[in-house]
Amino acid sequence: MRPVYDVAIIGAGPVGLSFATALAGSGLSAVLVERQPLSVLEDPSFDGREIALTHHSRTLLEQLGAWAHIPQNAVSPLRQARVLNGTASYALTFDTGGKDEGPLGFLVSNHLIRSALYAALQGTPDIRLIAGTGVESVTTGAEAATLRLSDGQEIRARLVVAADTRFSRSRQEQGITASMHDFRRSMLVCRIEHETPHEHVATEWFDYGQTVALLPVNGAASSLVLTRDPAEIERLNGLEPAAFEREMGQCLRRRHLGRLRLVSTRHAYPLVATYAHHFAGRRFALLGDAAVGMHPVTAHGFNLGLRGAETLAREILSAKRRGQDIASPAVLRRFETAHRLATGPLYAATNAIAVLYAQEGLPARLARHAVLRLGGQIAPFRKAVSAMLMDRGAAMGR
């Protein structure tokens, strides 16, 4: 007999794990299906990505029981963010304006967040994890949906949630199309140690032919995020460490970091942004990158994924308390509306920024310089961006 669950979640990445944990103890049964083996979930390896968590995201991770599993010496406060353009010395700066509001955010390695969420899920009632197998097909019906797994298993659930990738196969199978923007760039990420202290200041530098971000992590180190042409990224990724250090020393010479040393593995990712035209269908919903795959320039991808998981959990738990169908069109419509309001403007603005700063012509260079200057002169703008970066939000309701 095919197992029947209230919710089936495709993908046990950070967003899928967050959503499953948000349902724990509610009386709803859930199953997570993950293609990667259990060993990867239990002990995820460093993947180069540092996540800039907002205050709201930290609160959600605390409520989910995951924050306690993150080593506190691995949490780096973000005190200030600076944006530079080309060879200009002027920097657009974002901070709390001297107010005692704590840091702008918190930098935590992606693999530590994944590990913490997996640990928080352990021992939770009514949550099952199936690892090492993928989902071959999803069929939705009036009363339930059926998942056919690659190992031959079949699972029935009242609601299916795809929280896999921005190229989600199940999203396509359900006939949900998505806007995709290929920036024709790749991103290389790694950690470097440097002589000059970073003072917990993040720097984003839109240079000609590349974009560089330096994200402060604890100790005398920063996460280097370098965006270039894919062929260039492939070449850099293949250099011996000493040669890579020398080239990055030249690349970052204007940042006055002193001697550099590579202290981690290097990882490369293509830059493709995705926005699904619908976030829900019949007994089907999208979360994380399957719904919204952000360009990393505003560092809000995981924060939006976590907020989406919070919103969907709130809606279906509210429906359960009222004795309603947790996958009814009305429930899923409320989730979609709320998540579009939370993601749409930021997605559009992020893409506009990424496109503007990828162009090398003189008009684009002048426009970038003008935007930075104008933004620096408008105090309400800087305060609004700082508030967005911090995002203190409301706590999750159960």
Word description of this protein:
- With 398 residues, the protein is α+β, with helices and mostly antiparallel strands.
- It is 35% helix and 30% strand.
- Strand 13 (201-207) and strand 14 form a beta hairpin.
- It is globular.
- The two termini are 32 Å apart.
- Mean pLDDT is 87; it is low at 377-382.
SSE layout and pairing:
Elements: E1 4-10, H1 14-23, E2 30-34, H2 38-42, E3 50-53, H3 55-63, E4 76-78, E5 80-85, E6 91-94, E7 105-109, H4 110-121, E8 127-131, E9 135-140, E10 145-149, E11 154-162, H5 169-173, E12 178-194, E13 201-207, E14 210-217, E15 221-228, H6 230-237, H7 241-251, E16 260-262, E17 267-276, E18 280-281, E19 284-286, E20 292-293, H8 301-321, H9 329-358, H10 362-377, H11 379-390
Parallel strand pairs: 1-2, 1-11, 2-8, 5-13, 11-19
Antiparallel strand pairs: 3-7, 4-7, 5-6, 9-10, 10-11, 12-15, 12-16, 12-17, 13-14, 14-15, 17-20, 18-19
Helix pairs in contact: 1-4, 1-8, 8-9
Biggest β-sheet description: 9 strands, mixed
Which bin fits the share of residues in helices? 25-40%
Structural class: alpha+beta
- Distance between the first and last residues' Cα: 32 Å
Radius of gyration, CA atoms, in whole angstroms: 21 Å
What is the number of beta strands? 20
Q: Give the overall form.
A: globular
* Separate helix tally: 11
Strand content: 25-35%
Any low-confidence stretches, pLDDT <50, length ≥5?
377-382
Mean pLDDT: 87
